[in-house]
Structure prediction request, 420 residues.
Amino acid sequence: MQIIDIAKRILKTGYVCDNCLGRQFAQLLSGCTNKERGKAVRLILAMQAEQDDEKIHPANFRELTFRNKTIKTEKATCCVCEGLFENLPQISKKILKEIHDLEYDTFHIGVRLSDSLLKNEESLWETSGIETTESIKKELTREIGKLIQKKTKKEVDLKTPDIVILLNLDKNAIELTINSLYLYGRYKKHIKIPQTKHYCPDCHGNGCDKCNWRGLTYDTSVQQLIAEPILEATEGVDTKFHGQGREDIDVLCLGWRPFVIEVIEPAKRQLELEKLKTTINKTCAKKIEIDSLRYSGKKELQELKSIHPDKTYLLTLKPKKPVTEKDLEKLDALVGTITQQTPIRVKHRRADIKRKRKIYSVKYTKTKDNILKVELKTQAGLYIKELATGDDGRTEPSISAILDTEIEVLDLTVTEVHCR
Ligand SMILES: [Zn+2]
Ligand SMILES: [Zn+2]
Prediction:
């Protein structure tokens, strides 16, 4: 069908705006807007109408002046978009007001159509066919995006935008999603605290008698110490802490361990990271320490979670029997592969399986009062305490089995996390 014939059919029954008319020919020509396409087609039809009689709804010529005849026009609302495209400046003003207090570099516009808009579009397509058309949703999204971009000078990002603005035409509302902000850093842990915030298992964070109405099992954690100043600076609502592996509560970490902290719904994103790092290190002195604080993203978080670095540990052990220097040398046999059944202490929350893990090196010394210091470089995922005690034969070989004595673990420290 000819463009003019299609246009005549579209404009026959009621007023259709330039955008909605032009959109039916969106796949013809590039470098022009649907509004321009619609205007061009309308002009041709108007000239034809002036020459012959065209059966077109007169409201469609409401902004034109005829030379040779008078066509009585009236004000009307587009029967396809219900006046949406003419209202775009007001809609974008509303959006700008909503996002005014937010800091962001990138955004993404979404549109949810109302049932009546969907119906209008369907019946329009029945009239015009869909050969050269595009959807109203696509045009709305693009045109609002252009307006917001022009006013804010921010970029549209379809994949990982800082904020998502949804124009919900079904509810006649603007719905904002503020995406998380990710920061990368490394920490050392100088005191025996958990890595992440533990909610009280009885009240799940709401507060109860058992947790003294704190909602938490422990007073503090690496996460809380780092998060507090970050939440203040970003005005976020919460954080998620992702460490590259973790150490137990009673294990110190004196080597730098990488982490990504995720700030939920931050209002501010432009941070003075150097200053923030200094603040954290000052307020948390002697508890934890951080460095390398910088902006990060979801991709790095995924990488962080998928890489399991080797570690070096320092064990302080108390054997039940006296151990000689000669006995100690037997510990060289630890270098190689260790077979470890899931430890008894974690069996309730981990699958009970046998795993093989490597030990790359071992160093040892002994004090006069029979205290052993053992340094081990190991593959990730080896349970170190059980390597010392043997865990009732579930870990083989073990320090306890090699020295043929019961072993008490006095202290365990991560001294290095071998990243790359
Ligand atoms: Zn329209
Ligand atoms: Zn509680």
